[in-house]
Design goal:
mainly beta; Jelly Rolls; 1 helix; about 10% helix
Length: about 160
């Protein structure tokens, strides 16, 4: 009986781990105390091996229902293996004009995924660093649970 149970768990793990074949990298980091101070850049390091493929780079955000804005502005910094940097300011819409949350929700937690770069090629193989910095009017942004970066293979 226990052998059958372990086999069943193994099958589920294989099924769920193979569902996302586009993903090259994805990491989310919890914001300590759900309080994101603007000087706290959140770093993400990944290795790019294949420079012939096109990729999408996305930002993940998780907030709770007490988050007081309908959007979040952030700086996304990208540094390539040669230490050349680029930055772009992005706005992620979190709620519509009536205040209805637009993200995928479970209870009072809402998840968002926003494309920052689409159909890009990384020019050099090696380690890339992405850093996220909140850029709202409040120096300390409350009720942000986590942020992350996802890099996936571009699909036509």
């Amino acid at each position: 009986m226990i052998h059958r149970f372990i086999t069943l768990i193994g099958i589920f793990v294989l099924l769920f781990s193979s569902c996302d074949q586009q993903r090259l990298y994805e990491e989310n980091k919890n914001i300590e105390g759900n309080t994101w101070y603007y000087k706290n850049l959140i770093p993400f390091d990944l290795q790019i091996k294949d420079t012939t493929k096109f990729y999408n780079v996305l930002v993940n955000v998780r907030v709770d229902a007490d988050y007081k804005y309908s959007n979040i502005f952030m700086w996304v910094y990208a540094t390539n293996p040669e230490k050349k940097s680029d930055k772009r300011r992005v706005e992620i819409k979190l709620a519509d004009e009536r205040g209805k949350w637009l993200g995928a929700g479970l209870g009072d937690i809402y998840d968002y995924q926003f494309p920052v770069l689409q159909k890009v090629k990384f020019p050099k193989s090696g380690f890339y660093r992405f850093e996220l910095e909140q850029n709202m009017r409040d120096d300390t942004l409350l009720h942000v649970k986590s942020v992350g970066v996802r890099v996936e293979e571009f699909q036509n």
